[in-house]
Amino acid sequence: MPVTDQQAAPRGERKLRSDTRRNRRRLLDAVGELAREAPGQLTMQAVASRAEIGPATAYRYYSSMDDVLAAYVLSVVEKLRDFSTTSTAEGRPLFDAVVDKWVDLLAEHGPALVQLRSRRGFLERLHNGNEIIAALRDAWSRPVQGLLDDLGLPDNMIEYALFLNNMMYDPREIQDLLQETDLSRREVITRLTEAYLGALRGWARAG
Question: Where is the composition biased (Basic and acidic residues) (predicted)?
């Protein structure tokens, strides 16, 4: 049976969407590889070359290196969000599991995550609907709320608790502890979590 224009167009559109997804994925994979191997050489040209995509094509998907880094960071944070929101654990066990998952993700993706910087603080970006911060909020809200409940701390400090969480579990600082001290992975997690619990209690007492 002959294919009509109406039938052919959707297939062409599907192929275009498939090509777009594949090329975006190749660019993000290239960012991760270069960040691990040669972080000082992270440029759009280098990323496009590693992805075997022309620079002009790369710029059609991402307008700058910051844009492709933001997309990479978002893809990692979404993995944490998906893990957190589908976990059947609750309370402190859920929080501990999400921290473990975050540190695992940093072991694989940390070199790229630390490349993205913002002049704006966590709360400003949260209130302005920043996509990465919104995904972080979705990843951490349930485990942090469960932790507050376990500690008997007020629900109305959840936003401050997320703010403190963002400070305490910052990828740069975790990478720093893992690389520049003799602390084991488990010791880093334990000390950061104990410090976070202390920060939550201290914040509540001060309020």
Answer: 11-21
